[in-house]
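Pair request: fold both.
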Amino acid sequence: QSITAGRHLQLDIAGDLSTDSGTIGAGGVADIRAANIHNGGKLLAGQELNLTTNTLNNTGLINTSGATRIRVNHLANHGRLYGDWVDLITPYLKNHDGAVIAARQHLEVDGGTIDNRLGSANGAAPLIKSDGSMLLKGQSLDNGGGTVQSAGDMELRGLHVKNDNPYFQTYTKVEEQKGQQFMRSLDPDAPNHNIYGRDLFKHNRKDFYDSLDPNKTGGITRMDRIQEITADVRTETTEVAHSTPGRILAGGNLIVNATSITNDKGQVIAGGAITYLNGSDEIKNLDAERTTQSFYDGTFQNTHRQRVGWRNIDRVNMEGEENHGEFHEPASAPKTDKMDIVKTADHSDPGLIAHDNSADSDVAASSGPVERIESGGYVTTGVNQLLPDGQLFQSADNERDPLLRTDPDYIGGVTADIPAYRKPGAPQGGAQPPVVTQADHSTPQPRARNGKEALALVEANLADRLKARLSRIEGRLADINPQDAPQSGVSFGVDQNKIAALEPWLPPGLDPHDLHKPIGDLYANLELVRRQLALQTGRLQLPGEGDEIERYKALLASGEQVRSRFGLKPGVALSGEQMAALTGDVLLMVNTRVRGADGRWHDVSVPQLYSKKRQGDVDGRRTLISGEHIEGRAEKLDNRAIFNARQSNTLHVAKADNRGGTLSARDLLLESDSAIDNTGGEIRARRILYLKSGGDIINDSTTSSASGSSANSAYRKETIDRRGRIILDGEGGEEDNSQGYLSLYAGENIESRTGDIKNHNSGSQSYLSGKNAHFDVRTLDNRFTLNSGGQSRLGAPGRDYLSTRVATDHGSHIESKGNIFIHAREGKVHGLGMQINSADGSVAIYGRDGVDLKNGWEERDLISSQYDKGRRIIGRKENETYREEHSKSAIPGLISGKRVAIVAGYDPENLAKQNGHADVNLTGIYAVSDNGTLLKAGHNVTVSAAEETYRTDYRDYQRKSGLFYSLQNPLSVEIGRREWDNRNKGHGKHYAPSLVGALDGNVVIEADNHYQNNGSIIHASRQENLGPVASKAELAAMTDAERDAYWDKRKHAGNVIIRAKSAAETALVADHHNEQENRFQSRGLKIGLIGGAADNINATASNLYTLSHTGNSRVKAMAAGLAAYNLQQSMTQFQQGGQGGAGGGGNTKIAITYSVSKSKS
C-alpha cells in the first residue's frame, strides 16, 4: 500500500498511478511521474515534492515541509494540497467545495483557468491561501463564493477575475403594525394632502383637530374636512435570504497587473495598497440593493366637522356619497439603498448576544440575535456567518476540545521517521559461497549436423547458464543477515511542537471552566477575528504591535481588563452602554451558540471583537473593494458599491462611473480620460478631493415613483431616491485634515442636476471648473385625486371632488466653509434653482461667455367641488362650490457668502476682458453677502424679478326651496324654489424680485454696456450708524487727513455703486384680469397703486415675507433691514406725491380698472 524512501524517491510510471489510502513519499525529495495520478491517500515529502502528470485528481493529502511543485495539464483538487512553497503550473485548476490549497510561505499558480468557484449553495467555500505571499497568473480566476487569501502581498497577473456571490438570494421581509390611525386633510386650501399619524393632532373641544407641531404636518394647523383612516401598515423590505460572497483578501499589498476585476456582491480587501499596473482592464464593483416601501391597508371615512346654527352647535357630517370604504395606498414611493451587513434567513437563531451586567454566562440568557451593533464610536459583528469552514478547519465534537481545529497536517508540516542504516553482518554460519565454474571456451565445441542437434545444443547451453546464475544468487544471499533488514518502511508525522503552540489561549485571570468549550484553536480563532474585522472596518490587520498572534493576545488581555472593570461574569458580552465606554479595541470571550458545518448547534465560547471606528473604515455594507491606498492605471471603473482607500486614491482610468456607489478616501485624486458620472452616488474625501475628467463631471440624482388607484382615489408620488453627492468632510476625527481642498476640473462641462457639492472643512477652498457649468433641477410631480361621487351641476367629475397636483423643482446645493470658485472657462455658467452658500468664505462665479442664473418653480393645480345640503323652514337648501386654480410660483436661487462676485467676460486670474458680449442675467435670485457684492459684465447686467402666474375659475350653485318671506312693506310670503348660479374667472401675474445686497458692505454693479433692473431690490447696508452726512462747513473744517478718513469710513459700506454706459430701472406692474357672471348687476370703481411707493409697500408686505422665511441667515438679516428701510421710504414717497419710484426713480402711478358684473338670466 505504501512506497517510501528515506532520502530520495524517484517513481516513473508509464501508465496511471492510483492511491486509495496508502502513502507515497520520501523523507527528502520525491519525484513522481505518471500518465495520470489519482491520489486518495497521501503524497508526502520532507523537503521537496515534484509531480508531473497529465491529470491530477486529488481527494487526499499532498503535503511537504518544503516546496510542492506540480506540473499538470488538468488539476482537480477535492482534498488538501499544502507546502511551505506551493508552485502549480497547469492550464486548468479546479478547486472544489471545501478543498484547500495552502502555502505556509509562498503560493504561485501559473496557468490558464483558475476555478475556485463554490459548487453548491450549502457547500463549504473552496480556499486558496498563503500565510505569506501569493502570485496568481494566467487567463481567468473564477472565485464565485470562494476565498483567495494571503497574509502578505498578493499579485493577480493577466487575469479576468470574477469575484461574485453565486447563490445570493433575497426575500421580501414583511412587517405589519395593526390598527394604526391616520388623517388626511380634504380641505382644498390645505398646504398639502399627505397622510399623517393621528397622534400628531389634538382633538379640541370644538371637535376640530389641531396640529401639535405644524412643522411635522407640512404646515397644516387645523383639520375640519378629514379623511380618517384606520389601517394596517405593511412595510416590505428586501433582505438577504442566502449569501455566499467571494472573498479576495491580501494582508499586504494587492497588485492588479493587466487584470480586470468584477466584484459582484463580494469582498476585495488589502491590508496595504491596491495597485493597478500595465493598463489593467475594467474594474466592476457591484452591490446588492435593498428596496423599502410601506403600504396602508384598511378603511376610511370622510367627515366634515363644522359649527352651525345661531347656537354654534357642533356637527360631524359624512363627506360625499362614497364617504367610506376600503383603503389601499402606498405610504410613499419605494426607497432604494445598498445592502448593509444584515441577518439572513439562514441564520435566524441566536448570533451576537447583547447582555447586560446582570446576565449570567449561559447561552439561554441571550436577549436575541443581532448582527451588527454600533455604539459610542465602536462596532461589533455577529459570528454565525463568519465561521471558518472547509478542510483546513476540522470539527471536533467532544466535550472540551475546540469545536474547530486547524488541520494538523498544515500546521505541523511533514516529518519523516527513517530507520537507522546498518552495515551487512557476517555470512550465515561462516560458510563461503560456492565457486562458480566458468565455461571453458578453449576446447572446441561440438557442431550440430542437423536442426535437431542444433536445438539440443542451445537447450544445453541455456541450462548451463541458468545453473551458473542461480549459483551466484545463492552465494550472495548467504551473505545476508536477516537482522540487518528494516523491520518497517519510513513513517511520516507532523511537528507536534507547532501544533501545541496554537492551542487555545486565554489571558491570565480567566478560567476556561467558566466558559463554554472554545470555538477554535489559536489559528482558527485568529481567522475568525480577521473576518469580523474585515466586515466591521474593511481592514485585515489587527490593531496593535507585533505579529498577528501577539496582537490577538494583547486584544484578549485588554478584553479581560474591561470585563473586570465592568464586573461582568465570564462569557458575557458588552451592552451598548458599555461599548460606548470603551477606550480602545478589545476582544472578549463570549458564550454563544453557533451552527457547525454538520448543521448542529453548539454551545461555544467565541472571541467577540469590539472595534474602534477609525476614519477610513467602511460603513458595514456587504460589497467592497478596500485598501490602505489605491493607485495606478486602469480602464473603465464601474462602481456601484464601496470603493474605499483608507488613505489615498490616485487612480487614473479611461472612464469612471459611480452610479449609486461610494468612492471614498482621505485624499481622493481621481482622473478620468473621459466622463466622471456620479449619478446617485457619493464621492467622499476627508482632506483632499480632486476630480479631473477629460469629459463631463456629472453629479446627478435619481428619482422613484409610485402611482395607482384605490377605491375612489388615485395618486402619484415621486421622490428623490438618491442625490449625487460630492463631499469633503474631515469628520472632526484624529487626523489633521487641514490644508486640503475640493476641486472639480472637467475637460468638458460641469453638470450638476439636483446634486450636492459640499465642503465641510474649515478654511478649505472649493473649485469647480469646466468649459460650461450647468446647475439644473429635477421636478417632482405629486398628485392626489378623491372622487366621493354624485353628479355635479358645475362641470366637476364629481359633486364631492378633490384633485391636487404639486410639481416642485429641486435644485443643486453647493456649500462650503471656505471660498467657492466656479469658472466656465469657455462658455457660460447656467443655473436653475441652485443654492450656493459659503459660511465663512467668498463666492466667485466667472463665465467667459456669460452668467445666467434663474429661480426654480413650483406649480400647483387644484380642482375642488364641495357639496352641502340641509333643511330650512318648510324646505331644503343645497349648495355646490367649484374651484379650479393653477399657480406658478418662484423658488428663489441663492448666492451667499462673506463676499459675492458674479462676473461675465473677464479672466479671473488677471481680470483681463475676454468677451465683450458676455452678460450677467439674474432672475429670481438672492445674491447677498456680508461685506460686499459685485456684478460685473463685459456687456450687460440685468437683474429681474421672476414672473409668477395664476389662473382661477370659481363657480357657485345654490338652490333653496320652501318658505320665502319679506318683512318690508308690504309684507309678503311665498312658497317656491329659487336658484343662484355665480361664476368668476380670473388670471394674472405678479413678480418675485431678485435681491442683490450686502449686509455691511457695498453693492457694485459694473456693465461695460447697459445695466437693467426689472422690479428687483438692490440694497447695501451699513451696520455702524455714522449719522447724517457732514455739512459743507463741517467738511471744510476738517484737515485733509481727517476728510480722507471720513470718506474712507463711509465708502466701506452702505453704498450702491453702478457703472455703465446706460442704465434703466423698470417697475414691473402686476396684471390681474377678472370675469364674473351672476344674477345681479353691479358697477364699481377699483383703484390700485403700482410702481413707486406701491412697489415699496408691496415689497414690504409680500416680498419681504418671502425673504424672511428663507433658510439663509444672510437673506433673513437683509429682509429685516429692508423692512424698516422700505416702509420709511415708501411712506415718505407717498406723502410727497410719489417721488422716487422703484429703485429711486420714477413717479407713483395710479391704475384705474372699471369692472362690470352682469346677469345672463
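--- second member of the pair ---
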Amino acid sequence: MNTEIPQDGKAHRGLAGLLASMFLDSKLTPLLVMAALALGLVAVLAIPREEDPQIQVPMLDVMTAMPGASPREVEERVTNPIESWMHQIPGVEYVYSISSPGQSLVIVRFQVGSSEQDALVKVYNKLYANADGMPPGASRPLVKVHSIDDVPILTMTLWGEHYNGYELRQIADEVQHTIRQVPDVSETSVIGGQPREMRVILSSARLAAFGISPDTVVQRLKAANARVQAGQFAESNQEIRVDAGHLFRDTEDLAGVVVGVENGRPVYLRDVAEKIQDGPADPGDYVLFGTTQASAPGGPREYPAVTLTVAKLKGSNATDVANAVLHRIHQMRGVNLPADVHLTVTRNYGATAKQKSDELMQHLFLATISVTILIALFLGWRESGVVLLAIPVTLAFTLAIFYLLGYTINRVTLFALIFSIGILVDDAIVVVENMVRHFRMPVNCRRPLREVAIEAVDEVGNPTILATFTVIAAILPMAFVRGLMGPYMRPIPVGASIAMLFSLAVAFIVSPWAARRLLGRKHLEGAHTLEPEKEGWLTRLYRRAMQPLMRSARNRWLFLGSVVVLLMFAAALVPLKMVLVKMLPFDNKSEFQIIVNMPDGTPLEQTTRVTQALGDYLSRQRQVVNYQIYSGTAGPFNFNGLVRHYYLRHQVNQADIQVNLLPVHQRSEQSHAIARQLRPGLDQIAARYGARIQVTEVPPGPPVLQTLVAEIYGPSEQGQIALARKVKKIFEQTPGVVDTDWYMQDPQSELVMQVDQTKAALHGISVAQVAETLRLATSGMQAGLLHDPTAREAIPTFVEMERPDRSSEQALENIKLRAADGSMVSLRELVDVKHTTLQPDIYHKNLKRVVYVTGDVAGGEESPVYAILKMNQALRKLTPGGFPLKIYNAVQPESTAHYSMKWDGEWQITIEVFRDLGLAFAVVLVLIYVLVVGWFKSFTAPLVIMAPIPLTLVGILPAHALMGAFFTATSMIGFIAGAGIIVRNSILVVDFIELRLKQGMPLAEAVIDAGAVRLRPVLLTAGGVIIGASVILPDPIFQGLGLSLIAGSVASTFLSWPAVPVLYYMLHPAHRQAPPEPCNLPEES
C-alpha cells in the first residue's frame, strides 16, 4: 500500500523544508556549488602530502657526563635528581633513564599533542632552576629534542666499484652542502666513510729517548695552534688590526712544532712521531652497500658506501621536498658528483606518499562512480546525477576543513574520505529517493513541482537530521582515543563527522535544487497518469515475508531466537580463536631492518663479519633488491627507530642492516611474510657467531619498544636480574615468541689502573696527568684543528700511540711520564692494576629501577595477546623472594617492595586502544539513547532502534574468520561506525511507522508498509557503504574497517530490517486493538 495524505503546501515546515524552499530557485545555490569545488581544489593543492599522520609527541634526551663514576654512582648522583625534576614537569608522561659508566641519559616523553617548543622550554627551565643540585664533577646537562620531523624522508647511498669510504665521504660532503640549500630541507647527515683527519702517531721509544711525556705533546700542539685578535692601532689616519698566533694548515706546520728541548736543542714533533698523516681516520665503523642476484647483473657484491639522509621542515610537503632534492642532485652529476659513483635511493617517503595518495585518490574516484552507478540502477540516471553532484561538493568542503585543521593528505585522511563516501551519500539518497517517490505519486501529478519537492524534503527532513546526528554521535567519540593511537586514527572520526554535517546541508540545499532541474521533465512526462507506481519485486517479497511474522507470535519468537543463535555463534568465534584479536595488522612495506647485537667486548671487525654473513644470505633472496650494512654506527632511523632510540647505537658490538625489498606492485608476498620466511635462516647464521638479532618491520601504527616487553621490578638489583633471567627463559621456551633479548650487558672485562697517589706525588706527577696519558694511549686525543677553509668538515688533529704501544696491559704499563726532576717514570711504578668486570647499565622507568625482557611474535597466532596468555601460566608459577610473582597488565606497580612484572609494548597500546574504543562505544550508546528519547519522547522507541546494533557482529566476525583477518582497532572502528548507520536506518523506519499510525493505518499494516517504503533507500544506503568500503579491503591496515562495514551492513540489512518492525509491533500491544483516529490536517487559511 503506497497511498499518502498530502500535506498542505503552507503547513508548518521544518528546517529541511525551509532550507529547500530558500535555495530551490535561488541563484546562490550554483555559486555555492562552484565555491565549494574551488575550495576543495585549493585544499588538495595546498595540503602537504605524507604517507602517515604526523604524531606530535616531543621526546627530549638529557645527557650528562660524570667521568670515572660507576653506573651506581651515576644513578645516585646524577640520574635520580634529574629524573625527579623531569617528573615534576606538567605534561610529562614517561621518564626513562640509563645510567652507564661515566654518563647518564634521561629520556623525557611528553603527552601526545604537546608543543615541542613548550616541552623544550619547560625542561630547560627546570634544569637551570636546579643547577645547584648537580654534583661536582658532572657536566652541564645537554638537552636534545627529537620529534617525528627528525625522521629522514629521503636517504641516498653513494657507492662505487673504484671508490673507498674516505673518497665517498668527501663526495657526500659536497652533495650535502648543496642539498642544504633546497627549500624546506631540515636536518641532513652523512653516515659512514672515514672523515679527513690529521693523524699524529707517537713512538713511545722516541718519546722516552727525548724525555718527553705523551701528554706534553698534546699540550704543546694545543698551545702552538692558536690565533687571536690582539687589538688594533692607528697609523696614517688608518686603523690597523693586529692578529697574533699561528694556525696549522698542513702537515709541515704540524711537524715543525717544538714539543721539547734536549741538550739545548729543540725537539720537533717529527722527531717523536712515527707518522704524521693528512688522510682518512681509522675506521670507527663500516658502511657497506650490498647488491643482490635480483638487482646486480654481475652477481651479489658488497661495496664501501656512505649514506646521506634528508629530513624536511615541519608542515612541508614530503613529495615536493624529495623531488626537489633529487632534482638538485641530478644537476650535480659530472660536477661535484662523479658519473661513476652510484647514488641509490634507499628510502623515499615522498615517493611512497605520492604513490599512496594517488592510489587512494583513484579509489576515492572509483568509489564515487560506483555509488553513482548503484543509484542509477535503483532510481535512474537523472537521480544518480543528483547524488553524484552531492559527493564532490561534500568532499570539497571536508578537504577545506582538513586544511584549516592542519591535517596532511596521508593514507589515514584519505581513508577517512573513502570511508565517508558510503555514509555521506545517505542524506542525499534519502532526500532524492523521497522526492522521486513523491513525484511519481498520482495525487501529486497536478500539483506544482516546487511544492511537491519542498514537501518531499520536509517529510524526511527531521528524521534525516536526527539520523545524521546519531551517526555523528557514533563516530565522533572515537576522536578522543588517547595515547599514540589517538592522532593516528583521529582523522577518521573527525573527517567522517565533518563530511556528515556538510552532507546534511548539501542534501537540503543542493540536492533539491539539482533534482528540480534534472527530474522536472521526467515528472511532467509521467504526471498525466493516475495509476499508482508499481512496487518492485524486492518490495513485494519483503511484504510477503513480513506477513507470517505479523500474524503469528510463535513465528516472531522463532525469528528472534534464530537471530540470537546466530549472534552467539558469531561471538563464539573469538574464544575459539577462529578470529584473532590484534591492535593493528601487519603492514606491507618495501623495507625492514635487522638489528644485530654482539656480546659486549666484541671488536668492530668481528661485528662486521657477522653482518656480512647475514648480508650474504640476504643477497640470494629473490625479493631483496639491496641492503645496507651499518656496523658500529646507527643507520638512518624511521619513526620506530626514533621511539626505540636506535640513533644512539654507536657501539662497536652493534650493527644495523637495512633491507630493501621489491616494490609492492612487483611482488605477490607481503613484507611481513617475507620477513617471516627469512627469519629462520638469519637466526641460524646469528647463532653460529653468538649474535642476537631482531627482525624489525615498520610498524603499522604507533611504534613501541618491542612487540612483547616484560618490565621487571623489585627491591634488589640482583634479584631483578635473576627474575629477568627466568622470564627470558620462559620467553625462549614459548612457541611463537621470537627475537628474545633483554636489556642487560654481557660480562665484560675491565682493567682498572689505580694510581698510587703517594708514589705519584713523590715524582711530581698528578693523578689527572696519569689518567690523561692513559686516555691518549688507549683512545687517542684531539689536539685542535687543521685549518683548511676549503674543507666541508672540520679536520681534527688526532694524536695517538703506535698500535703495539696500546694493545696489551704490559704495553700500557711501559708508557713513561716525565717526573718533576726530569727523569722518566713508567706507569708500572705509579699504578696498581686490578682486573674486574664492568658494571652493567642501570635502567629506570618513571623513577623505578627496571630490567626489560623483550621479544616478538611469529607463527600462527601473531598477536601478543595469545603469547602473553600462554606465558602468564608459566610466570604465575614463579615465586621470587618467596612470594608469587604479581603481574600487572595496564599500570606500573606503585611500589618495588616486592617483585613484580608489568606487560608493556604492543600489549599496552592494545589495552589502551580497545579500552578507549570500548568507552567510546558506551558513550555512543548513551548519546544515541538520549537523542532518540528526546526525538520520539518515548523510552521504548530507543530500545527498538538500538536493538539491531549487535546484529552487525553476525556478519563482522564470520567475515574476519573467512578472510583470515585479525579483528583490529580498525575493525572496532568499523563496528562502532556501523552502529551509527544501522541506528540511522532504524530511525527512518520507526519515524515512518509513527507517521502511518498518525494517518490512521493499523499497526500491523503500518510496520510492514514502513519497512517496504523505506526498503529502497536502506538498500541504497547499504550498497553505498559496501561499495565505499570495498576499495579499502586491499589495504592491510584498514582491511578490518572495510570488512566490518561491508559484512556489518549486509548482516544488519537482512536481519535488522525484519527485526525492527517486529520489535516495534511486540513492544506496542496497545496499537493492535484499535488504531488511533486519523489526525485532522489544519484547514488552509
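Observation on the second member. The first helix runs from residue 15 to 23.
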